[in-house]
Design goal:
The chain is mainly α. It contains 22 helices and no strands.
Length: 492
């Protein structure tokens, strides 16, 4: 067990560095939420932004079709990582070009299909963002393969800073400078403000492409057909997994557009749902930065004698920390809510549901070692498909009845079901003896603290924060004592 300490420290260190490239950019993007929800957009306009980003997320998964994970797998197996990089990148470049051609030919039809017939520019700009981000996915993966988390992070941060700066210029500086007359400017006269969000994003994505020029310097347009077949065979189930998860992640926002009761303002409801969804940002940020570091880490540890013990320890520490994040946000929700406009506060009741759902997703990422390390990615695809189907079917059933609250509970249920399935299926194929007693103990304590806090809501503000701070300290001390005792026991 002692041997597992160093790899875990390495994972923590790399998670922290990748956190610069994940947490900082997404936190900076998070700062746009109060700008959008308080100062610039109506609930309906913010709903449009959210919906279009949902389409971006799904289509980006389709255009990368599991090539990132396939690249990691075969770059580690192959003696010629550059050949793997060239084949994977060439493939993505071809499909991205074909995608753009199709979109530009049928843009008007697509605009009508997504119910924005007068905003054809949405489709054109969004498609360019998707194509550029797909093309940069492999160079970013190459940086991770080379263990260059710092460069990875710097490029992502600069790209996001450019995007945010342009948002401020387009949505705040220019309108304020020209006052009520800014709509008379040619560029603003016939263009929705929503469009400028995506123009800023496109320029930010193009800047990342330029900053990856060194990585593209390694690239040669060459396709090894035998290798490509192997990459596609491995990557196709990953595509299905990623797509199913993305459906689970964003389908609720898309389906709300079509299945809310008659008379409901769909864009406004989506806006409220999305704004409150954003309050789970800390959980989502940690899970994302962990995922960036964990994927290459799991592969690099696979052949080591103590690998399974290491995976078990990672799971325990991950769950302990994510429950801490859950409590931090929920106990201080009256502070966090000021990051969104008060018009969006009716949706605050979904925040604990979404936080718990994201925690389940993070646990699933930990469990995924069983199908990734055994090359049984198609099993993982089956699990993910189940999650996607649950999401679609239950949203269609519950959105007309419960609106966006129903979508939140569906999100919770979907991730919990695939977590359970993955755990029991994984035990039969690649058994890891997870520390279930500790996991259950930390979970029960966190849930108990959450329910206790609900009875304190009516107290005076100072009294409330004193009590919840004490509860949070109790949780931290409890985890620390349990883990310290374990470390002491192992050392003895």
């Amino acid at each position: 067990m002692i041997k597992g300490a160093n790899p875990i420290k390495k994972l923590v260190g790399e998670t922290a560095i990748y956190g610069l490239g994940t947490m900082v950019p997404r936190f900076l993007n998070y700062l746009l939420v109060p700008l959008y929800t308080i100062y610039v957009f109506t609930k309906a306009e913010y709903g449009q932004v959210t919906l279009l980003y949902s389409y971006i997320a799904i289509l980006l998964v389709l255009l990368t079709y599991g090539m990132e994970t396939a690249f990691f797998r075969y770059a580690n197996k192959s003696k010629d990582a550059k050949k793997v990089f060239n084949t994977a990148t060439s493939s993505v470049l071809i499909t991205s070009t074909l995608f753009l051609l199709i979109i530009f030919v049928f843009s008007s039809d697509i605009s009508r299909l997504i119910q924005y017939p007068s905003n054809n520019e949405y489709v054109l700009i969004v498609s360019l963002i998707i194509a550029v981000d797909a093309i940069t996915a492999l160079p970013f993966a190459y940086l991770r393969y080379q263990n260059k988390p710092f460069k990875f992070s710097v490029i992502r941060i600069i790209s996001v800073v450019i995007t945010i700066s342009l948002n401020l210029i387009f949505l705040v500086v220019i309108p304020n400078y020209y006052g009520d007359n800014f709509r008379a400017l040619p560029v603003y006269r016939s263009t929705s403000l929503v469009t400028f969000v995506f123009i800023a994003n496109l320029i930010g994505s193009l800047s990342a492409l330029l900053m990856l020029s060194r990585e593209f310097g390694y690239f040669r347009f060459k396709i090894d057909t035998t290798l490509l077949k192997q990459l596609l065979k491995y990557g196709l189930p990953i595509l299905i997994i990623s797509l199913s998860f993305m459906i689970t992640e964003v389908a609720d926002k898309i389906l709300l557009k079509y299945f809310l009761p008659d008379g409901a303002d769909a864009d406004s409801q989506i806006g409220i749902y999305a704004a409150c969804y954003k309050l789970a940002i800390i959980m989502m940020l940690f899970i994302q930065m962990f995922r960036y570091a964990a994927e290459p880490f799991f592969f690099s540890e696979a052949d080591k004698k103590d690998a399974k013990n290491t995976y078990s320890r990672v799971m325990t520490l991950f769950i302990a920390f994510t429950w801490f994040i859950f409590l931090l946000v929920i106990l201080y929700i009256n502070l966090f809510k000021h990051f969104i406009g008060d018009a969006f506060w009716p949706g605050l009741k979904i925040v604990p549901i979404i936080l718990a759902a994201k925690l389940f997703l993070g646990v699933f990422y930990n469990l995924s070692v069983w199908y990734k390390l055994t090359n049984k990615t198609y099993y993982g695809a089956i699990v993910a498909i189940i999650g996607g189907l649950i999401t679609i079917i239950l949203n269609i059933i519950f959105i007309p009845i419960y609106g966006y609250v129903g979508s939140a509970w569906v999100n919770f249920a979907s991730y919990f079901v695939i977590l359970v399935i993955s755990y029991f299926w994984g035990r039969k194929i690649y058994r890891v003896n997870y520390e279930l007693n500790k996991v259950l103990l930390y979970t029960l304590l966190a849930v108990a603290i959450y329910f206790v806090s609900t009875f304190l809501v009516g107290f005076q503000t100072s009294v409330y924060y004193s009590f919840v701070t004490l509860l949070l300290i109790i949780y931290v001390l409890f985890v620390f004592i349990i883990e310290f005792r374990r470390k002491k026991h192992v050392n003895n």
